[in-house]
């Protein structure tokens, strides 16, 4: 039998072998046993343990309690009148059934019931309860010659048949006992892990706080910049809308009328209504040439510029057309010009 993870977590078990010598007196032997493969090893034995030993050895381990001796009777669990009488009166009798798969020798062939009067075991139950030992899974058994082999059998049966994950999750006395034992075994490693996490968190929290503060500063700066940018954009759009609404003519109509007077010899390079006086600058409103139309172009025939100006002045909206610039490009030899029209 391989040593499973659950078995490693559970560790050794404590077995209490109790034997009544008469109705009022009993002896007790305590064994601490561990399972390695198919072998059960006795780690500690204590005969007639006192209350301190019981609390120490039973506090952090599963406890298996078996009672035998005087006044304890074993009968086949075959539905006989005596067995039915015992089972029908739980206030008078305490009993347990034999474990069919408990390796107790070739003479055990059938399932049996072992019972005793509760009045005889009440002092024992009180002593165990004062020591914090669960008695819900107590077994009543026939006495053997030596308590140590009997304790080894009990431990082997526990590791083979009862120590299972599904036992731990079931609301039974065995499940409760197993869960408490696991909790006691795991509490120090879990507490150590939690302490380690707290230390790591404490060491990392300062760095994380610095990073969060830096990110908050950067985010606040970005929000401020975005807010300023949005405000400036709104101001610019408002300014453009305001200038657009000042003219008596639509921009598209003005541009179309201007293009209709351009001779074939001229190539326009710029045509703008209320053009910007200078480039846009951050945190400053745009500056427009109010109620002005600007025409720029180039031509190889300087006389074509005169014809363009004459054509514009013949159109009522463009009567104030004025030649602002006329010069020859030294590299290309073409004539470049600029005409400004007051609208």
TrEMBL record:
Stretches that traverse the bilayer: 186-208
The UniProt entry, under InterPro entries, shows: PilN
Name of a matching Pfam family: PilN
Q: What does the UniProt keyword field contain?
A: Membrane, Transmembrane, Transmembrane helix
Organism domain of life: Bacteria
Per its record, how is this protein called by name?
Fimbrial assembly protein
């Amino acid at each position: 039998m391989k040593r499973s993870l659950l078995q490693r977590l559970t560790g050794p078990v404590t077995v209490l072998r109790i034997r009544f010598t008469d109705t009022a007196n009993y002896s007790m032997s305590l064994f601490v046993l561990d399972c390695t493969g198919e072998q059960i090893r006795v780690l500690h034995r204590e005969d007639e343990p006192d209350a301190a030993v019981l609390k120490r050895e039973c506090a952090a381990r599963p406890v298996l309690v078996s009672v035998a001796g005087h006044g304890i009777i074993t009968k086949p669990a075959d539905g006989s009148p005596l067995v039915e009488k015992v089972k029908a009166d739980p206030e008078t009798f305490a009993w347990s059934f034999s474990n069919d798969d408990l390796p107790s020798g070739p003479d055990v062939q059938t399932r049996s019931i072992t019972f005793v009067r509760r009045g005889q075991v009440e002092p024992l139950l009180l002593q165990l309860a004062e020591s914090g030992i669960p008695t819900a899974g107590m077994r009543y058994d026939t006495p053997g010659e030596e308590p140590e082999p009997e304790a080894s059998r009990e431990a082997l049966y526990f590791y083979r048949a009862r120590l299972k994950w599904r036992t731990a999750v079931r609301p039974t006395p065995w499940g409760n006992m197993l869960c408490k034992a696991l909790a006691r075994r795991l509490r120090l490693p879990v507490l150590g892990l939690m302490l380690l996490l707290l230390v790591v968190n404490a060491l990392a929290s300062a760095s994380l706080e610095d990073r969060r503060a830096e990110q908050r500063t950067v985010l606040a700066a970005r929000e401020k910049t975005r807010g300023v940018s949005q405000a400036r954009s709104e101001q610019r759009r408002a300014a453009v809308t305001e200038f657009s609404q000042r003219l008596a003519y639509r921009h598209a109509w003005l541009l179309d009328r201007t293009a209709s007077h351009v001779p074939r010899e001229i190539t326009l390079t710029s045509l703008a209504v209320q053009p910007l006086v200078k480039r846009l600058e951050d945190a400053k409103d745009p500056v427009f040439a109010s109620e002005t139309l600007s025409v720029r172009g180039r031509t190889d025939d300087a006389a074509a510029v005169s014809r363009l100006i004459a054509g514009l002045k013949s159109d009522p909206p463009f009567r104030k057309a004025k030649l602002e610039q006329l010069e020859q490009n030294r590299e290309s030899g073409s004539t470049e010009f600029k005409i400004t029209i007051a609208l």
